[in-house]
Amino acid sequence: MTYHEMMVKPMREEVTRSGVKELRSVAEVDAALGPGEGTVMVFVNSVCGCAAGGARPALALALQHGVRPQHLYTVFAGQDLDATARARSYLADYQPSSPSVALLRDGEVVHFVHRHMIEGRPPAMLAADLIAAFDKYCAAEGVQDSVSGAGD
Amino acid sequence: MVFHPGHEELHGVTVVVRGRSGRSWVGRYHERTERGILLLDVAIHDPATAPMDRDSWLERLRKFGIKVDSKHVVIPESEATQIELLQPSQA
Fold it and tell me: Does the predicted TM-score (pTM) go above 0.80?
């Protein structure tokens, strides 16, 4: 059962205001993830407390870092069901989890933050993990000033 | 720190439960009831039938996430010998 859109709208905006593009249909997911090029972050949003108190604030912190993936996307688990299922089909053997964060490079998952890695952990700690992954996998692209995603 | 105020300390947290039978369960802790420990979205390891040993199963689960075998499981108190948080992979 999905929640009323009015209730989840702030949860969506909390992510998209950081420059993350929301993917709400299968077609949008395929257009974004199909090419399988460069570094891509997929943030699986959720209505749960882990997302509100941990994952979304952590994401906002992490995306202030100078090094970021080239493409930033989000899907909303439990709300945009088809888009979320389609996005998960690009994540190989990784089990569905929400909230969660996947970092892909040239179509391969190189870093994955599962829900159990988010539970009860403060945003600063989660952000540090994401930043470390960005530095490890995204620095070569030099994406400090050329992030695409929102507005594509 | 209680993750969910008003609930038990482990409520909503992913735990590993080791059983006297040798079986293990990984899932979200919900609550203790008179029937036992209720876990949600549970992966189950039974050494009698599993294709890999417990440690390998846990390591794979840490990396790839929890493949749900059962939406909910009640583990009798008499069966549960150890409950611990699912720690991140060391790899």
Answer: yes
